[in-house]
Structures are given as structure tokens and as C-alpha cells.
Design goal:
single chain, 289 residues, alpha+beta, Arc Repressor Mutant, subunit A, Beta-Lactamase, three-stranded antiparallel beta sheet, 9 strands, globular
Amino acid sequence: MGTDSLERALRLLKIVEQSPGGLRHTEIARLLDIPKSTCSYITQKLEREGYLVKDAGGRNFKVGLATVALAHGALREIGVRSVAEPALYRLTHETRLSAGIGVLERGRVLLVDRVEGASFVDAAVQAADAGVRRRGRFRIREQRDIGRELPAHTTALGKVLLAYLPRKEALGVIAEQGLRRSTAKTIVSKSKLLAELAVVRKQGYAIADEEAVLGVRSLSLPIFDAAGGVRAAVSVNGSPQEAVWSDLDRLVELVKAAARDISTRARLAVGDWLPGRLRVRGPVDESRS
């Protein structure tokens, strides 16, 4: 019974988190296919501990702030995040693009750190001053939040992380997660994605051109650990209209330098810098680490 209650509580939190605006008690019971009395027992326990809260009207359940403390604790254990900030700020300064770090978690890209670029900030301020929200111009907040999970096949971060997985594991991720379309440019063919991953592995970087969000192009490179494994990646992203994209070779070198800097700092600071995560073997090439 205890195990059943725990599994139901975890499923409940997940469906509420994925429901903007929250869910009513009856909706939760229906989605979990459990009696209303059982649903009430679980929601009361979670609400008491701060993992669920009710909205201002007292009708819908939303995820509570207690989950934020758990998330910060988990992110704190990802050693690479604690040392990546200087490199990310340098990248945004050099490119005017936004920069971030991601890892592969349960088949999806987990964004563990992000710094907004000057171009994004300038455009956002202009839009705010004009009193308008330019749809399609910016990634929505939910797609930029640290701790957000994103489909791997739509992002440059995800392509890099998939490319450096053993083929069998990459195929497993694709089979489990599927290739859902986010924009007209999203790769939804397994054969096309596998061909692109082969190119990524050969050239050492990945590009996602408006495949996750229209108006956003991203470029990512792997971060190698001391054993040549890839367990994280760094990326820059922004409007395809930014001048920095016209010199791709230079941009790749800037991101590669950031990846090397992050890797070096992480090794010196915490040794095995991503504890508990899958070690993926890549080519042992210190010029790329």
C-alpha cells in the first residue's frame, strides 16, 4: 500500500506540474484513475508538506515551492554547474547570444544553467517598453527556466548528447521518447536524425535551426571529462539574424573554448565532476576537452 501511495503521489505531482493553471481534485482523480477518497488522502499529505498548493480561488492544485528546494539540491550536486558561470558570461559577452549548460536526464535535455545574452535582453526591454509581447520572437519562460526538460532531438544540446551516446543507447532514447514535432523544421525521421548525429560526432558540434522554437538557432559542443567521456554540453542560442552566425568557424571556436574552460575548471574543483551520471566514452582528445 505504501509503495502504491508513493507511486501515485509522484505521478500526481508530475501531471500537476505539466498542467498550466493547475488541476481540480476531480480532474486529478480521473487522470490517475483512482477513487476520489484516495486522491484526497494524497493531496492533503502533499499540501501539508508544501509540495502542492491551492490557487487563489481554492479550486485548483498547483505544484508548491517545496519542490524548488529539492530541485536546487539536485542541481547543486551537478558539479559542472558550479564552475560554468564564468565561461557562460564570457560567451554571452563575446557573442551577444544566450548561453547554457545541459545534461541528458531520462532521455531528455535537462537545462542546468543559463545566462541570457545581450541581444535577448535588448529585444525584451524594447518589447516591454512598447507594451507588447512579441509572440514567436522569444522562447517562453517555461522553455528557458533552469531545470526545464526539453526534447533532445529538437535542440543542439540534445543532438550533441545523443551523438556521443553508444548507438544502442541513443536508439533506446529515440524509441522511448519519440520524435514529436515542435516546429516545421523539427527532425521527425529516425533515419534523418541518426544521419545528423553521425555528422555531429564527426564535426564535433551540433546546430538546431529553429527546430525547437521558431526564430531561435542554437549551436552546441560537448564537454569532455578527464577520461574522454561526454556527460554535459554547452550551447549558445539566439536569433538567426544575429551577425555572429555569419562566421560559423569563429563561433564554433568560441564555444569550444568555453567547453574546454568549463571542463578544466570542473576537473580541478571537484574531480569526477558529474557524480552518478552515465559516463559516455568519446575520443580522448585534449584539444577538444
